């Protein structure tokens, strides 16, 4: 899907005059498809929805910079960098180099894992960005990011990180379940005396444990523990998961 730049004209506004444009003609099938696709995008600005006229901009500094960001990148590599940085790191950073007309002359991607947002003081949320010892002001870098619920203003959270977190939890869950099935992490039953004033001696506890474990052993059954220190009004039984 090629990137396109559009200019909107609202009611009472003048059509764009400074750049070469092509008016989208509703009588042409491809233009109708482009208009329908454009207006169906989620989060599209209201001025696009309410525009009386929409023109495709054919010649603009932004188009030039996207097609030729710098001597090492083209548009395809730039899009791949942004997409892969978002997927793995959760953020992507571009440093625009401006010319004398306050227009971007070059676009330089920065390694996202080396760029750190700097929190501000007081009411200032973002003080800037740190990259290899250099401090950028907030408006000196273009940033894309996935939202982090832990830090919605400065943080990022990538799908890759989410996958690692889930894999770790899944491994922990499987290991606990396997240990439970093998009867290792806990007893299947705890036996205590019915009378809270009585307690079992050490020899009696060992004898009862031996009798119950020998009688019900087999397969992957757990163990029975007899504890004379417990004093309850009824035997305690913990069911196996």
Features:
single chain, 241 residues, alpha+beta, 3 domains, 3-stranded antiparallel β-sheet, 11 strands, 30% helix, 24% strand, elongated, disordered C terminus
Structure write-up:
It is a single chain. This protein is α+β, with helices and mostly antiparallel strands and 241 residues long. The chain folds into 3 domains: 5-59, no CATH class; 68-159, no CATH class; 189-231. It is 30% helix and 24% strand. The protein is built from 6 helices and 11 strands. It has helices at 29-39, 46-49, 61-67, 75-88, 159-181, 202-215, and strands at 5-9, 21-23, 53-57, 91-98, 104-110, 115-119, 126-131, 134-136, 142-145, 189-193, 224-231. A 3-stranded antiparallel beta sheet has the order 1-3-2, with no helix packed on it. A 3-stranded antiparallel beta sheet has the order 5-4-9. The longest helix has 23 residues, at 159-181. It is elongated.
